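Fresh eyes needed here. Kindly weigh in on this sequence plus structure tokens:
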Amino acid sequence: MQVSRVFVTGGSGYVGRNLIRALVASGVEVVALARSEASAAAVAALGARPCRGDVLDRAALVLGMHGCDAVVHAAADTDHGRGSAAQDRINILGTTTVFEAARAAGVRRAIQISTEAVLADGRPLHQVDETHPIPARHAGNYSRTKALAEQAALAQHRDGLEVIVLRPRFVWGRDDSTALPQLVAAARAKKLVWIDGGRYLTSTTHVANLARAVELALASGRGGEIYFVTDGEPVPFRDFVEQLLATRGVAAPTRAVPRWLVRVAMAVGGALAWLTRGRVAPPISRQEYGTVAHEMTIVDAKIRRELGYAPVVSRQAGLAELRA
């Protein structure tokens, strides 16, 4: 499919900023949703045309999407805590509104930026592919709402609108304003410890590789399909986090805690959080445990086979870029 104009939600966020850069560099006109003047200024500086509104403003969405060939929905509430009504509204109702607006505006293709976390139920994932079922019980509210968002997006795949879902794992790299700052803050505050030594495997996705996957999905993705996106072979979680911290000159922790102790602390902390209505926070939430405390590895053979995907940035190159 030939794409000349794309509407992007979440354009001022980490993934959105890098998507805009990649699309503009390839000659695509980008219209980006902006909730505030600051967001509008940020996306304009990247070369996109701002569209004021939010993911719940159907009228603004339809107006901004008019004349666009495709939509990339990258906006989401990524909080990994207890969850909130706001997270439900943004991730579930917001996604529904965005894809309904795409249909109303006559958009032909729409991409949902999802996550492997939709499969997280508190247990390890070992080399799973797109056939792995969505669990009945999720690790936390982020997983639950993103799974429902996927379903809402795919429900709009009909009557001229092709919907494609991309699932990256552990997005990282240049301009990171999410994972890396949180890891640095936790390490500096002596709150980062290794669960059972941290040597379990994880898949990762450099943000430039995710942007490449989006470009391929826009061009030749199959409507109604889900695609995992990774950097390639998994890496030990501890090794990768240590390398990320080193790019910021931050010493990695050496302290490790046994898994059984983390489970006890999580259960006690969760009960206290419920009793105090969130005033007391557990040391680790069930959502965090479900996504970072054990192996989470996925297989991206499908996108490689069907769309010709290959990483454009290796881990070594991405780490070197961060150090620079």
In short: The chain is about 40% helix and 15% strand. The mean pLDDT is 95. The radius of gyration is 19 Å.
